[in-house]
Design goal:
The chain is α/β, with parallel strands linked by helices. It is 38% helix and 19% strand. The chain has three domains: 256 residues, 2-enoyl-CoA Hydratase, Chain A, domain 1; 185 residues, 2-enoyl-CoA Hydratase, Chain A, domain 1, CATH 3.90.226.10; 38 residues, no CATH class. The chain is elongated, with a radius of gyration of 28 Å.
């Protein structure tokens, strides 16, 4: 070919090679590997990204990264790096998104001149420098012993550390979705997030998989028994939520991000759902039974107060004595924390305490006001509760609550006792407490308190049972919430039907305070 012919074609040969390399990347691990992956009911990483982000918004970075195979001085094929990532948008807002490609070496880590993502790497740098949310679609086993062969030596732990991952927790929303089996580094990365989710039947997460467990402990276990949602979500709370399918997982990610700002330097978006702030629900007048030992539906109560259809519950199957959910009040994002009288009478056990701590940190990090819907008789008591360190975890939740800088609103629905009740107030802020007529409070419930404080008097009475009942009745009369209101010990007692309008008014007024507290807190984000 003459020089004139070459000039006439310009850079077409190189563009042709570029097209070939892109096609190799788009093929992932090859037709057979992709077919096997899809036969297990799992989407490929490219299908996942396409299903999550706004149509046509994904701008890939590092598409040509991989290992070329050459023969006769010509490129024959390229095995792409097992990670796909780049810039995209969700509901019109920019995000950094990436995930392992399981069809290439099971999504195990790959190292070149620069790491693409998974644990550190370009995708995390993108979220950090542009101050945009990060979405990790995790489907990989992390490191492999085969890396010793490639390098000729063992790598000291931390060569690709979590430094940037931790930094991001104080800067931008981080979502981790476990889409397949995650072990080692990818499993650890899933925990370093503000919210995590996994998919029923196809997702598993553990420090090490069944082969390692069997070799180490001589225990034969299945992936499901070791790290399926029943363990990771319901029992351990390692992962917050579980989705029935990958498509529903993507919907949940979009919903979660809709409540959060792009970063800690911004306020959460306001979304008008057309629900009037002064809506008053008649059902609230009768939702709490007069029989104080009878339970009611706290989730229903929150739905009646929040903007219609706006609730997004976090960890619904873990720490069931407590309900934590993001929602909206007159379009503004809020975090509801409600005690659940249907489980342990609403008493705070160790799981509920951990759940409350994490949720307070999430809301405080992203300038989301917190509304406590209180019906708590105190910390869980008894042998099991003490052995589980309920007191330590409960006080850690109190500690984190006292450090929170967002406005906190306390609505006492029924019981508010002891240190658990104290943890639902805003002692370093305005400390606005409103109560329903059904409310009661104190250092501890009258029943148990009377038995302890008046033990000798009760035992010496002709009829101890009757005397105990008499003392309880006397004290209960003085424990009326209206008497506390007379002393301004509680700021307001309201008709339950007024709850929504009252809260909406103060949440709106608190926006000015939120706007003055923008930015990260030193060495702070959401601790795993």
């Amino acid at each position: 070919m003459s020089r004139d012919d070459t000039d006439a074609r310009g850079w077409q040969p190189e563009v042709d090679e570029l097209a070939f390399r892109r096609a190799q990347a788009d093929a992932l691990g090859g037709a057979a590997a992709v077919a096997k992956h899809q036969a297990q009911g799992r989407l490929t990483i490219r299908e996942r990204i396409a299903g999550l982000v706004d149509a046509g918004s994904f701008q890939e970075v590092g598409r040509l990264t991989g290992q070329g195979k050459y023969g006769g001085g010509k490129l024959l094929s390229v095995t792409p790096a097992p990670y796909v990532m780049g810039l995209a948008s969700i509901d019109g807002r920019a995000v950094a998104v990436g995930g392992e490609d399981f069809t290439v070496r099971g999504g195990t880590s790959w190292s070149g001149d620069r790491k693409k993502g998974g644990q550190g790497g370009f995708v995390e740098d993108l979220a950090h420098h542009y101050r945009i949310p990060l979405v990790n679609l995790i489907d990989g086993a992390g490191g492999s012993v085969t890396s010793i062969n490639r390098r000729g030596h063992a790598v000291f732990p931390g060569v690709h550390g979590f430094e940037r991952s931790v930094q991001l927790l104080g800067e931008v929303p981080v979502v981790c979705a476990v889409m397949g089996a995650a072990a080692g580094g990818p499993a650890g990365r899933a925990i370093l997030s503000h919210w995590s989710v996994m998919v029923k039947d196809t997702s598993h997460v553990f420090a090490a998989g069944p082969p390692v467990v069997e070799r180490s402990l001589s225990q034969k276990v299945t992936k499901e028994a070791l790290g399926g949602p029943g363990v990771a979500v319901d029992t351990a709370g390692t992962i917050e939520n579980v989705a029935p399918s990958e498509a529903q997982c993507f919907d949940m990610i979009r919903r979660f991000l809709s409540f959060l700002p792009q970063n800690v330097w911004q306020l959460p978006p306001v979304v008008d759902v057309g629900d009037p702030a002064d809506r008053a629900e008649q059902e609230l007048l009768t939702i709490v039974p007069r029989n104080r030992r009878k339970a009611y539906d706290m989730r229903r109560l929150i739905r009646l107060v929040a903007d219609r259809g706006s609730e997004f519950e976090i960890q619904p199957t873990y720490g069931k004595a407590l309900i934590t959910c993001l929602a909206r009040m007159n379009g503004r994002a809020v975090g509801f924390i409600g005690n659940n009288p249907q489980v342990y009478g609403g008493a705070m056990d160790v799981k509920a305490a951990r759940k409350q701590t994490h949720f307070i940190e999430l809301c405080d990090c992203f300038h989301i006001p917190i509304v406590f819907m209180v019906d708590v008789p105190g910390f869980m008591v008894g042998l099991e509760a003490e052995a589980a360190a309920t007191l330590r975890e409960g006080m850690r939740s109190v500690y984190v609550g006292l450090q929170a800088t967002v406005p906190i609103f306390t609505v006492v629905i029924r019981k508010c006792y002891g240190m658990a009740g104290m943890g639902s107030t805003d002692k370093n802020g305005l400390d606005l407490k409103i109560a329903w007529p059904s409310a009661e409070w104190g250092s501890l419930p009258i029943e148990g308190g009377v038995a302890a404080a008046f033990r000798r008097e009760i035992e010496s009475a002709p009829d101890p049972v009757a005397r105990e009942a008499e003392i309880e009745a006397e004290l209960r009369g003085m424990a009326s919430p209206f008497r506390t209101a007379e002393a301004f010990g509680v700021e307001e007692i309201i008709d339950p039907r007024e709850t929504r309008a009252y809260l909406c008014r103060f949440i709106e007024a608190a926006q000015a305070r939120l706007a003055t507290g923008l930015g990260p807190k030193p060495k702070y984000g959401v601790r795993p």
